[in-house]
Design a protein that fits this description.
Its cofactor is [4Fe-4S] cluster. The chain is α+β, with helices and mostly antiparallel strands and 346 residues long. Helix content is 42%, strand content 13%. Strands 1, 5, 6, 7 and 8 form a 5-stranded mixed β-sheet that branches. A two-stranded antiparallel ribbon has the order 2-9. The protein has a two-stranded antiparallel ribbon with strand order 3-4.
Length: 346
């Protein structure tokens, strides 16, 4: 029995009953694929249900406000996925008359969609013979065939894509693609895979050569930078505060946060007081300040670690653009801010 047939047999017996596997609607498949980028199934499933409930069609998503989309996405991270999803929904409605693109090449034109996502949608929804290659697929193929080419190199990406394309069952591309992703996610795991019960253990080159723990090979990661974030949590007249919307192309674009002072190192109360004075947020600089967390809250992103402190600033002054603290939950905020709002007794 060849690789593809054996893989599909395994999938038939072991596949999970996931909500997006009960439909071939490309809108729903697209939602699931975008949500599951950088997100595990157990975490992403409630978001999938939330999006399909709140935006049951691409028209509903296109007509939503960005803040509504970001709020629903809150907690998933990598918020560019949500913004791209919203942009692409508008593109489908306004440019394609609401008809979802039905070929790999056309699906690739959607913002935030790369080779993997386009291949998944094209094969699952339109039976196009185009192989998916994601982290799970890299792991399965590199181990089974004993390939040591770095998976995050240009050469490696081409090599694995071609190999997956050579292996895909032309008569069952959707099943093959879902099978190899499922096998990587559930059996050929990154750590401590159960090689003894593996359907491929007689021919797996990584197992034969004792290289299961070293494959796949990845080039060295980008150096992680450390940043110091000081959030200024203003409490005016005990019931008003200030939020600002992040702009630019950095992290958390278009999400809301408390006024932020970024420093090159940790600062003390005297130093942060001077910086608050320089901001001019509070009239006459009439306020009292206290530190909420003495130990930094470390928030880890892919390429940076944020060492965070929340400074509580109380004042009796009337503030411009202040909002009622009762409305804090209405705004889409990063999970770091959301966690603080939940814990702090406003």
């Amino acid at each position: 029995m060849n690789f593809s047939a054996k893989l599909i047999n395994w999938y038939t017996v072991n596949k999970r009953d996931l909500p997006w596997r009960n439909t071939s609607n490309p809108y729903y498949i697209w939602l699931s694929e975008i949500i599951l980028q950088q997100t595990q199934v157990i975490q992403g499933t409630p978001y999938y249900h939330a999006f399909t409930t709140n935006f049951p069609s691409v028209f509903d998503l296109a007509n939503a406000k960005e803040d509504e989309v970001l709020k629903l996405w809150q907690g998933l991270g990598y918020y560019s996925r949500a913004r791209n999803l919203h942009w692409s929904a508008k593109y489908i409605v306004e440019e394609l008359n609401g008809e979802f693109p039905n070929t790999y090449k056309e699906i690739l034109k959607l913002k935030g969609v790369g080779d993997y996502t386009a291949s998944a949608i094209a094969s699952i929804c339109f039976n196009e013979v185009t192989a998916v290659v994601d982290g799970n697929v890299y792991r399965v193929l590199s181990r089974y065939f004993g390939i040591e080419t770095p998976i995050n190199s240009t050469q490696g990406q081409k090599q694995f894509k071609q190999l997956a394309q050579d292996l895909i069952d032309p008569n069952r591309p959707a099943i093959f693609n879902q099978a190899i992703m499922e096998f990587g996610a559930r059996h050929c795991k990154p750590k401590n895979p159960d090689c003894n019960s593996c359907t491929f253990n007689q021919n797996c080159q990584a197992l034969i050569s004792n290289k299961v723990d070293v494959l796949p090979v990845k080039l060295k990661k980008t150096k992680v930078s450390i940043k110091y974030f000081n959030f200024i949590v203003v409490l005016a007249n005990n019931s008003y505060t200030i939020l600002e919307q992040r702009k630019g192309n950095g992290i958390w674009q278009n999400l809301y946060q408390f006024p932020l002072i970024e420093t090159k190192a940790a600062v003390n109360e005297q130093e942060i007081t001077k910086k608050i004075n320089d901001l001019g947020v509070i009239p006459n600089n009439d306020f009292e300040i206290s530190l909420y967390n003495t130990e930094d809250i470390i928030h880890k992103l892919s390429h940076q670690h944020l060492h965070t402190k929340f400074w509580i600033v109380t004042t009796q002054q009337s503030l411009k653009n202040a909002i009622s603290t009762t409305k804090l939950h209405d705004f889409p905020v990063p999970i770091l801010i959301s966690n603080f709002i939940e814990k702090f007794d406003f």
